[in-house]
Amino acid sequence: MSNLHRRAGADRHAAALHVNPLYSGLISEGGVPRYRLPDGPMHPDAALAIIRDELMLDGNARLNLATFSTTWMEPQAKELIGECLDRNMVDREEYPQVAELEGRCVNMLSELWHDPGQGIGCSTAGSSEAAMLGGLAMKFAWRRRRGGAGGRPNLVIGTNTHVCWPKFCRYWDVEPRWAPIRRRGGPSDLRLDPEDVVSRCDADTIGVVAVLGSTQTGAYDPVADIAAALDRLEAERGLDVPLHVDAAGGGFVAPFLQPGLAWDFRLPRVRSINASGHKFGLVYPAVGWVVWQDAADLPGDLVLHTDVLGGPQETFTLNFSRSGAPIAAQYYNFLRLGFDGYRAVQRTCQDVARHLAAGIAGLGGLEPLTDGGELPAFAVRTAADLGCTAHELSDRLRRRGWQVPAYHLPPALEEIPVLRFVVRNGFSFDIADRLLADLRDTLREVRGPGRPASRQPLTALTR
Ligand SMILES: *Cc1c(COP(=O)(O)O)cnc(C)c1O
């Protein structure tokens, strides 16, 4: 599937939507064209009913272990979002209070990430926009550092990074220098090696990206070890390479569950951090955050000035207009949950993830490569003699309503096909046990012919 949509063929172009006969009195006689703007208006109830009927075909978010995105918020948060949908983030003249809430969120996150007090940051549409802005800041700072002497800029990233980083490199013409993820020892050992990182750095390295944690496996890169290796590189060869931490998931997990882990601005080498508010920040899409350790890390020529909305404004974003609703929702969660509330939510996700990973390990034929103890997410490989591939298992689970994606780990890991399980708020022990039961039945199906699996309907679990 692609986010690019081609023009439909002529026959389909003409096709009308199939509208429930109960609404036929509310629509015009010619029906409702599928791909063409209808000639005239229809009753709002009919429009609502038609679209709702179509959206019913989307998956059940509660049984989706594929996504990191938030799919449930409290009714009070929904109410607030409804009230703020019309507020345009970019219009700080008209909506100074939304801007104020954004500033409070940036401050709370900076402190959570141990910024010593000189930090600067902003909200974004998500970690991908945050990565673009963080990457651009590194590119501009590199250019300033190098004067006219620079060659082609490069960015050192692991093969475990999210697609937003190779995307950054492609879009802004930066060479990606891939550091491999190798499986060395223990089950959770799917991380960047500091020596692999440092050996790829030179004078035209704009920065290094470490991941907290990997979208593929949930594992955290050893940020402190990478920072120490970059410190040694500076001491020995005079190369000052900034470290950016992509904490899309971990930025809202590690401060609560691994408070002793120094991955953030406690390390002077870490110059910038991004996180997704709409993942473990527990907010509906779309909101992300990027924070720099020091305002000086953000080159001034990236910030543009405009007075198009009346009054002078500074802007450092890729887009211009964006709804303020997710910002209000993020602030709602901060007020509503506080530190202890976030910790309780993430702790429960992690407990459920560990329980699920341990249960899966006990089924036989499936080997968890991580255990859910960092991000509450883990990857599972299938044994060669299982009787079906990871992709077939994913298909079979899909038929039972569960979305568990199958994909390949990167090249240095021999392209291991794995299944990934992400545990989010609302995925309870009961649902996990139901999934384990379905997995057990499915494995029985693929292992031996004969016994049809018994199963009760899943509807009782839906919210
Ligand atoms: C999800 C994710 C991203 C992209 O985040 P969006 O907020 O969806 O743009 C980037 N990096 C990592 C590690 C992620 O898990």
TrEMBL record:
The superkingdom of the source organism is: Bacteria
Q: Does the keyword Lyase apply?
A: yes
* Cofactor dependency: pyridoxal 5'-phosphate
Q: Which reaction does it catalyse?
A: L-glutamate + H(+) = 4-aminobutanoate + CO2
InterPro entries recorded for this chain? Glutamate_decarboxylase, PyrdxlP-dep_de-COase
**Record Pfam families:** Pyridoxal_deC
What EC number(s) does the entry state? Answer: 4.1.1.15
Question: Protease: is it a keyword of this entry?
Answer: no
Q: Which UniProt keywords apply?
A: Lyase, Pyridoxal phosphate
GO MF term (any one):
glutamate decarboxylase activity
Against NCBIfam families, the record matches this protein to: Glu-decarb-GAD (TIGR01788)
Q: What is this protein called?
A: Glutamate decarboxylase
